[in-house]
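Record 1 of the preview.
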Amino acid sequence: MNLKHRSYQKELLDSDAIPFADIEQNMRELDVINALLGGHRITVKGFNLLRNGQQQLHVCEIGCGGGDNLQAIYKWCKKLNIQVAFTGIDIKEECIAYAKKNKTLPLCTEWICSDYRHVTFDAKPDIIFSSLFCHHFTNEELVQQLQWMQHQSAIGFFINDLQRHPLAYYSIKWLTQLFSKSYLVKNDAPLSVARGFIKKEWKKVFVQAHVPSYQIQWQWAFRYLITYRHE
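->
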């Protein structure tokens, strides 16, 4: 795999007509991977950086998948008695169905099955975020995505996504071949790294989107946490 440039090969999960049982297995394994390799920790960190001490917030995730990230934020908020309302948006009906079935979130949680670009809010969420979502898009599409998150959020947005790196690629390829029972995970996990970004590529996209005053932090294991706060 040549990792000098981003891969645009489509992941299997991006295709249609995947059996629901296969998507469920994929969602379960992704939750475990994010828990073990620090993905949920990074999501909670991004949320807390933008929260800035507020005790009552509305949080929206685009590309929410099975709802694992929202669940991680909710567990953390419960410990600190933070009141939080959630909106999860995903284009796949199967992902929304899985999230509704398997995640314990406040009753006011809203699940929206839609392309995020078609969603508008009566009241803007305080924080919008995505995790392992951006690498599914072209750089041109990402420009629009950054602008959408900027315009639709009241406080700001954050992104948790993969660094394209040979060690990350071959490590996750080896680990999933050994331990995964999901053909989706075995194919898509290393491909996700190949579709990921390096820091200078992120900077270029933000310049093209005319979104200023953002911060990029490298996180273990081979991730970037990007935060933007309205001035």
